[in-house]
């Protein structure tokens, strides 16, 4: 459910939620404060004195109890406000120092130059400061330049890499990460994946991440809501393994990816991870786990007649449009040539059409 900020309905929902939530819980109470603020803006919104008084009391208590909350924070702007003083105030609140800005700029430059690599889910906030989460990173990548490699997902860049044969039983249940689910959703393959794979596994922490990113007041990503709905429709096909929480998880950049690494070490799963760097991380300090990618799934869909060659070409082209790095077999370039080419006699027009397929 997505409710427009500044609507009376949102204020009513926020107030009722505030009655039910745990006021001592940082996330629950912080979510109430966010919802109330969003719902109380607007000229036509009437907020009673009782509501305002309670909100002020609860917000004061919250910021005393959780002064460094990552859910919601407050700060006071300088009285004489100009662009420079505003930036300085925001930098101070966000903990951004000149040294920190230079560090983030250097990291992005090294990613763009290929001097540094990291799993896709590690990049938001930790390396790319202006990107809040992995769903935004995927969205930013689609509109990024071809040289902005820091934002691009590397799936299977090596044309010499031997592709997995899905015509035979994998022997192990494929375990999917959040990046793979985003890729499948992007190219319209999520439903088809459940037709081709009778059973899959999605870690508990990955499911929590999807839930948070789809929540209208935490992530608000429509794509994540759509992914969540498809998963609900196929819940009987999904195993939901997990690992006990430990101290190392508190320091992990991505607890969900660390959980997949731990689960993969059991030998019970085939990695279905579309991020080349994440696969490398998972295989650190342990034997290389068998793995597949969405490219393998596309080939299998074609083999079974679920997709035509031109369909596979179209979906590979969409991945490339999203700046994903994939190796493409020559026949899929041929499959992307439109049928109307057969009717074209003018050489220049034909050349223009063919060149458009590779730019």
Characterise this structure.
There is one protein chain. The chain has 359 residues and is mainly α. The chain contains 17 helices and seven strands. The strands form two sheets. It has a five-stranded parallel β-sheet. Helix 13 links the parallel strand 5 and strand 6. Helix 1 runs antiparallel to helix 2, helix 2 packs antiparallel against helix 3 and helix 14 packs antiparallel against helix 15. The longest helix is centred in the N-terminal third of the chain and has 17 residues. The N terminus is likely disordered.
Would you kindly provide a brief summary of this structure?
This protein has helices spanning 8-20, 26-39, 49-65, 83-94, 98-113, 134-143, 178-186, 190-196, 204-214, 222-233, 247-251, 255-264, 276-282, 294-303, 309-321, 330-335, 347-356; strands at 154-156, 173-176, 200-202, 238-239, 269-272, 291-292, 325-326. With 359 residues, it is mostly helical. Helix 14 packs antiparallel against helix 15.
Rg (CA only)? 24 Å
Q: Report strand order across the widest sheet.
A: 4-3-2-5-6
Tell me, briefly, the overall form: globular
Distance between the termini: 39 Å
Spans of at least 5 consecutive residues whose pLDDT stays below 50 are 1-6
Helix content: 40-55%
What is the residue-averaged pLDDT? 82
Could you state the order of secondary-structure elements as H and E?
Answer: HHHHHHEEHHEHHEHHEHEHHEHH
Main beta-sheet strand count, sense and barrel state: 5 strands, parallel
Q: What percent of residues are in strands?
A: 5-15%
- The total count of helices amounts to 17
Structural class: mainly alpha
Q: What is the β-strand count?
A: 7
